Amino acid sequence: MIKIGPSLMCADLGRLIDNIQQLDLADVDFYHFDIMDGSFVPNITLGPDVMRALRPCTDKPFDVHLMVEEPERFIALIAEAGADMISVHAESKVHLQRALQQVRSHGLKAGVALNPSTPLCVLDYIMDSLDYICLMTVNPGFAGQKFIPSTLGKIKDLKKKIDQADCGDIAIEVDGNISKAIIPEVVASGADMLVCGTSSIFIPGQSLGHSVAQVKRLISHA
Fold this sequence. Notes:
single chain; alpha/beta; 8 strands; 32% helix; RibuloseP-bd_barrel
């Protein structure tokens, strides 16, 4: 089953609890938190205090995407704030396998995030430490960028790599302008988890429930 995860950096930050209540009613699958440090990417967004405040508002999983240098410094803090899943960037200053084991030591699902130009070979020696892989389909840091078409082939290649590795169920998450137009293509290419922002769920003048229903229809017909 393809899972839908609204990206909360794209929500109405003044009405976050209301947005989550509407999205829960629409039966989304998880919530995606982008945490940026202003160093790994030139932006600063949601932090653990926001997660902690929202945790009592929903029982849906919290998926945290760490776009930070030295993510090991943040893992315990993010776990304590209520995360269920944490992905760290392969390109950050990190001992990657150690960071993934650190995530799992807190009882959470461990993921690795890859920038569009990062080759899949960086996964060769960590597949057995992964629960999911977040493929960036834009360069990380900002909402509203254009989807990079070459990443469709990367999704297909990753699907083959997972199947050949025989390391159990490793989900493919896609993140970056996952629009209504591109949803059928990323699903057909092998994506399991869709991070949805301003191009599919948080659309001005359209209710969140209606947006989620549209995304579900696109998935069902993919």
